[in-house]
Amino acid sequence: LTSLILCLFLILIYFINILLLAIIIMILLNIVYSVDKPIAFNFFQKFVPSKIRATVGSIKSTAISIGSVIGLLIAGIIADSIGPKTTIALSGFFLIPAILFYLSIKKKNE
Fold first, then answer.
1. Within 10 A of 10 (CB to CB), how many other CB atoms are there?
2. Is 15 helix (H, G, I), strand (E, B) or coil?
3. What pLDDT is recorded for position 77?
4. What stretch of H or E contains 36?
5. Is the whole-model pTM more than 0.70?
């Protein structure tokens, strides 16, 4: 649900022409993103065995770091080509496959 809200906020930014409203939406986006963190941490602690928790956490952190470097580089190239506003909206569309992938995993586990 949080990813879907983030996706919608990112796409909504494209249609906003008032700077103050865009800033408010970006602040709301960060609030929604931050609300998810404690829930994800609790989920991680509950379902990952303590024996491998540190290893899985390290792999997760490394993957996030590498993904951030590559993602920000690609976003910068796209922003230079088509503009930052369109790039932010496109990032919302890039979340859609991740949401569908998550939902498919969730259905298989039920």
1. 21
2. coil
3. 93
4. helix 19-47
5. no
- The whole-angstrom distance between residue 66's C-alpha and the CA centroid of its chain comes to 14
Q: What is the pLDDT of residue 80?
A: 94
**CB 102 within 8 Å of CB 13:** no
Gap between the Cα atoms of 20 and 34, Å rounded:
21
Which letter, b or e, does each residue of 61-87 get, where b requires 16 or more Cβ atoms within 10 Å of its Cβ?
eeeeeeeeeeeeeebeeebeeeeeeeb
| 45 residue type, one letter | Q
Average pLDDT by stretches of 10, the chain with 110 residues: 76 83 84 79 80 87 92 91 88 82 70
Q: How far apart are CA 65 and CA 24, in angstroms?
A: 27
